[in-house]
Specification:
288 residues; four-stranded antiparallel β-sheet; alpha+beta; five-stranded antiparallel β-sheet; Jelly Rolls; 42% helix
Length: 288
């Protein structure tokens, strides 16, 4: 289960627990508000997909208003401030494609998060019971997975790991692991207008003959990419090799073969010194 999926699971679990004591009349009112909210969310998404930004913005504002209606009903009996929780989850779960969108579009993510959390209120009693059983099963799997991770942490690492100084929007869609997945369509992206670095850490020291870099370009948008970069090879804390270079702006050549060598290398760091467009990033880092 991805980090984002775990966040969503725990958030919805808390929402359902807090709302489980709602009286039938209040639950029915919330169900009507959520139904109206879902209609507005679907309309706004359809208008976004159809490239109608003005109409999508208007629909997103209506979705935000319906979100406020649902929150007002929910928090009358809830123990936690749902509006803050929804806003926090929605902000962390924003799709990468909305990073530069105006506020109405970002508000749509908040409304969508509320619709997911409060969809429980629209189920009949049997459906709510089934949903709770499903959630409990999911929580059991989450706990089992956490125990497995703890056990794995006690064993020596056998894989190359990727770690970055930062990731755009803390999104799983553009995290450090993207540079090792063998897919040049996925990318690690830095936050807007920030420098940073990404490291590959080996399970045991190894020889490095060269490093191949593939630049990011943010899919079809071609609006963010690394410009100047530096590759450094380390043996623990000791620098044993380095090289610098630069990429042209997208959609230019994305590949750079870096002639840098070292023995007993434990980690390779690639630093983004300057960027094109909104920010830097890399699609692949291949160590040979």
């Amino acid at each position: 289960m991805s980090l984002r999926a775990r966040r969503e699971h725990l958030f919805v679990e808390r929402a359902e627990a807090a709302l489980s004591a709602l009286p039938d009349e209040r639950r029915a009112a919330l169900a009507r508000a959520v139904a109206a909210l879902e209609v507005k969310v679907r309309a706004a998404r359809a208008l976004l997909d159809a490239d109608c930004p003005d109409e999508a913005a208007a629909a997103a504002r209506e979705a935000a208003a319906r979100c406020d209606d649902a929150l007002a009903i929910a928090r009358r009996d809830a123990d936690e401030p749902f509006e803050e929780t929804v806003a926090r989850w929605g902000a962390r779960g924003l799709p990468v494609l909305w990073r530069d969108a105006p506020e109405p579009h970002r508000g749509l993510a908040r409304a969508d998060a509320a619709a997911r959390a409060f969809a429980w209120a629209r189920l009949d009693p049997a459906g709510r019971a089934a949903r709770r059983r499903w959630r409990m099963a999911g929580m059991g799997a989450l706990v089992a997975g956490s125990c497995a991770l703890a056990a794995a942490a006690l064993r020596p690492e056998t894989r190359t790991l990727a770690e970055a100084s930062a990731t755009f929007a803390d999104s799983d869609e553009c995290d450090a692991a993207r540079v090792m997945d063998g897919d040049r369509k996925t990318e690690w992206l830095l936050p807007d207008r920030e420098g940073g670095w990404i490291e590959l850490r080996f399970p045991r020291p190894r020889a490095v003959r060269s490093v191949e870099l593939w630049n990011a370009h943010n899919r079809q948008y071609n609006d963010r990419a690394t410009q100047r970069w530096r590759v450094e090879l380390y043996r623990d804390t000791r620098l044993v090799g380095s090289a610098e270079g630069a990429f042209v702006a997208p959609p230019g050549e994305r590949r750079a073969a870096v002639a840098v060598q070292g023995s007993e290398v434990t980690r390779v760091r690639v630093s983004v010194l300057a960027h094109h467009g909104f920010g830097g990033g890399l699609a692949e880092v291949i160590v040979r």
